## 1
Amino acid sequence: MKIKLSKENFNEGLKKLSKDYKILAPVSLGYKGTYSDTDVVRYQEVNSIEEMEFNKKSDFSPKEVIFPITQILFYFTEKEFKESDIDDKKVIMFLRACDINAIKRLDQIYLSNGLDEDYYYKKLREKVKFVLVGCKKSFRNCFCVSMESNKTDNYSMGLNINDDEIQLEIKDEDLNVFKGENDNFEVEFVKENLFNIELPDTQKLNLKELANDEMWNEYNGRCIACGRCNFVCPTCSCYTMQDVYYKENENVGERRRVWAGCHVDGFTSMAGGHEFRSTKGERMRFKTMHKVYDFKKRFGYNMCVGCGRCDDACPQYISFSKCIEKVSEIVNKEEK
């Protein structure tokens, strides 16, 4: 069903849905940005469309809703353990196409990568329904068109925002609580970014030569291993485990899953002091090839969705899209 309605009527519908769902959308949080007097846009619970921020790209991805930064898996004592409780209320998330496609990548890793599904991820993932937000124009550093992640049909509702009018496509009957007039439209998507990138031909990659190429040495001097690119990325899925013991009784505590990243010092450290990737260049190589080669070789599509958040967040102005293009240049040079 496709309808058009006013923002007032849309908010009335949200009010009805809020009885059964938490409604999450990007929100601009004043004076909480990286620098003084700057805002940060991240996902928060909202009650109206006026609270939602769609004129800016969210600084953090929505993955933290289904893959929390810190997640308590269970509590333990000397003799038993208890699984942590979660809020049973279902969730509606307002996302752009690139972020919905990013969650497809997380689903691939946590639900279809091996014999068993990730139980803790699945518990949160099953609660979520997507609202696709139409994207009229590209933001700075976005290259979703090049990554073929600018479109999706995986959503329960889709909407375009036109001044004071909402165009709403309702695909899930459970969300059919909105009143409006019938309309004929398509949810908007970005057709062209501010720039395009050339992806490397994975069939022509010489992995040994690429691994030893001097291009990676550039990042030894530029990258500071802060991990921001990992933590804002909607498809990075790495984590570490922590057991936290309580002071009152050292045999009682909780086990947590905590985000980790391949750029951060200590990520590949092993007992005995060995580390697989000790230099920043080696870590950049690993991340790059994972995003545009390893994942694709296994599952048939690229891991990176071209949201550009890594470029936005890097304090050293390292461009991941440029890094991908450098790999393509090496492949093209080898071919000649």
## 2
Amino acid sequence: MSSIALSPAPLPLRTHAHPSPLLPPMSIPRHLTLHHRQSYHHHRRRLAVAAAALRQDIAVWTPAPLSFVEPAAKSLFHVTVDLSDSPDLAASHNRAGQYLQLKVPDSEKPSFLAIASPPSLAAGKGVFEFLVKSVAGSSAEILCGLKRGDVVELGPVMGNGFDVDRIQPPEEFPTVLIFATGSGISPIRSLIESGFSASKRSDVRLYYGARNHQRMAYQDRFKDWESSGVRIVPVLSQPGDDWKGETGYVQAAFRRAKQSFNPLSTGVVLCGQKQMTEVCH
């Protein structure tokens, strides 16, 4: 199957540090004792950390006010940043699946956030929308506690996003399977609302996993997504007694469907927990 992923890998988003060109290059001698190898790798890690810190210090940060902060589901929040004074930053979001770093007051550590809104929204309304999971003690928790008008700082838009050209034209890839869990639905929203000719394909399904109904975001958008050609399959791992849909994990729900696919004409989009992506890949 063709597999489309965030660049870098799906949530949680991570950076990979590389030695800075400002630091002296290092080479590995052919004959190193184990102690020397351990010392070398420890030194390389220290250089990588220093390089990452240097890049963060020289990164361009754009101040922007919040225009919307509201609960989306249990522990999840809708956050909208006003970019009307930063048109260049808004225009740099050109593909679903891209992300950026966001700094909040009183916290030195930025958060990596996937942009939930489609690029057209940034171009038209001049905003970035995010789906943020509030984690105790994190910068994300501070962000979710802010209010309209509070100013945050945004780093540049990063990543190549979802390469939908790999599943075009739609008649050659009639089947597209999308798997997302938790806040991993955030960049998937951007993908669906950006459009990838779902209505021209014979089978486009989104398996969306959450713990329970209260933790499932974007339910108000499901009808619109389905009208665009995407079938939504909610999967709850801790459902209530009144739940009649799929239960367990998304990979198990997919297996229970027991449908056969032509791997040469099927696209797969994965965004969520590592175990899910490994099983579904």
## 3
Amino acid sequence: MTHSDGGADAPAPEEVPSPRINPHIPHPARIYDYLLGGKDHFASDRKAAEALIEVSPGTREGVRAHRAFLGRAVGYLAAEAGITQFLDIGTGIPTQDNTHTIAQKVVPEARVAYVDNDPIVLVHGRALLTGDPAGLTDMIEADLRQPEKILADPAVRRVIDFTRPVAVILAGVMHFITDEEDPYGLVEQLKVAVPSGSHLLLSHITLDFADQVRREDFTKPYDNSTAPMVPRTYDETLRFFEGWDLVEPGLVEVVTWRPDLDEYQEEIPGGHAWAYGGLAVKP
């Protein structure tokens, strides 16, 4: 299998079953891939995604707005903040404008460690190794719920020098961590492990802009998936950045975080992307 925006000969997931991939259980990474217009998903993922669209007709456009925010934030980190190391956790299935692609356009020697726990993501992640030869890119199998293993992983250590500033990227992943799994404690372990000058890039699904939607209706498509959906409020999302200094404009809806005037802005049915995004620096 190849990168999800690879050639037309790339086989569909149904053609390459793996004993570690259950096509009957929806997975957030594959649902996201479907919403982005990718081709690496199963019927169960498509069904869950369509259920989301039924609840929120702007889901597809919101997901693309979410992705565009990630691109702008990574561009800022590489071009303005001087960051050359990126630890991207819960990266999802490779698509256009991945972290290493954006960062290495600005800083060819940028180093990116992608971390994910989904086998289908890891299969496609091998294509990520085709970054700029001046830099270094690797895909590591690990779970956000075990940050100590991520931080100690030899492959991560080969890519990331934790004595120098690092951008920790948690884009669209924390809303798959339940309160019982201690989301704030997990993020805190990552924050403690990096030095002053490091950045935290985080985005999170919210229902703050959707008073008309019942939480249980929105989260239901994920009830039978590999990870439930946990929308959080502004204050709950802001808490992830505690102790660090937010970069202007702070924690805002993803479409309003340093919008690129040259970037095509899709009209989102309902008017909102239903996601907060922010970037903060460690003092």
## 4
Amino acid sequence: MKDTRIFHTINRLTFGSTPGLIQQVKKIGEEAYIQSQLTPASIATPDSLTNQLQSLDTLNLTPGQLYKQQHRLNEEAKQLKLDAKTKQKIRGDFEQKIRSQAEKARLLRAYESPRQLEEVMVDFWYNHFNVNALQGGQIRLYFSAYEQQAIRPHVLGKFRRLLGATAKHPAMLIYLDNWQNTAPGSPQAKGRFKGLNENYARELLELHTLGVDGGYSQADIISLARIFTGWGVPRPSGKRIEDEDGFYFESDRHDFEDKVFLGHQIKGRGIEEGEEALDILARHPSTARYISYKLAREFVVDNPPESLIKKMADKFLETEGEIRLVLKTLFSSSEFWNPDVYQGKFKTPYRYIVSVMRAVGEVSNFNSATGLLRQLGMPLYGCPSPDGYKNTQDAWLNPDTMIRRSSLAVQLSKGLFQDRKPVDSQKLIETLGDNFSENTREVINKSSPDLKAALILGSPDFMKY
């Protein structure tokens, strides 16, 4: 194997090597490359990427702006006295535009952005705070804004800010039903708002912060649900036009009694209770450990060693959840650089497809990529469960996966992403640094020229990182 440390750095901090990247990292060194990736603002974004993103006119709209556009379309349809089926199609077309542009933006950035660690972390945190865009209703309107405004700005910052941004976003409030969470007996406890809804409180503890073994009880879930009563979206719906963020605290649905949460006395006083609960969760040792475990699993090995988790958790607590510094601890650890973990992670369908795009270059067909992700069981923004897509080998490695990817490699090598321009196998080998096992290298060398690219993209070596 050649330049294994460099190849390992690229594999773990990016979605895969691109032409010239191995040489670039070799020139400046792994440490300098890692440091630059940890400070993405220091890396210039290519004009070509900026221009393509600017053409996606729904991408950076706030929830209020998105609601306003949908409301305008509905009003125009009413004025034209269109039938219900046509109105539904207009609404569906707008939602499909949002989704198509979100998918293209995600793939564009993952493929072309030099701020690769930032993109890896966007994928990581979206899965951690998953919202299923395919569920329907208002989530289809807000999920893209959720990624752009609640996830993306905070992926390397303070965990508390990320936690707060997701907690207040209408996509999460609607997805986990907290917009309906109401104190029984409160002035607005009626209709669909007639009682406590524990869904968000439970997932906040189990999936977002402490972890399933984090030391909380059913009583803590109920207390947390009571704390978050009234956290929702503007009502009546017309108010959403004026509210840019799409968040609204409705005091008439809140439980103003005092609570006890994780041993802390929470004074009943309104929205501040929720902020206090998020503060408690963000600095909790169980949260530090759970987040550190998940990051170590993402970047090192499916079953990360306790020694690494402890180092990262200590740094998390010391820095009040500074994600950048927790990752710096990870990337400077002996566990990360242990040769036994090199090429030890199995690519999810998303990482596999993006790594192909980056390796072959000159991608012009993004619709094929989104279609392939659906075929491979990992549609973008479409994980049906709140825990998000898994990134472990046991979730994705099976005989069907290998057959599908081997077959797909033939189509990809023939230029599926490049307007049917066949992939140059020699350039592909140079891009990947010839980092193949002896067995794979022997098979490639013995094959005919028109099969080499397909064998590389379908090889067991390329399936791993």
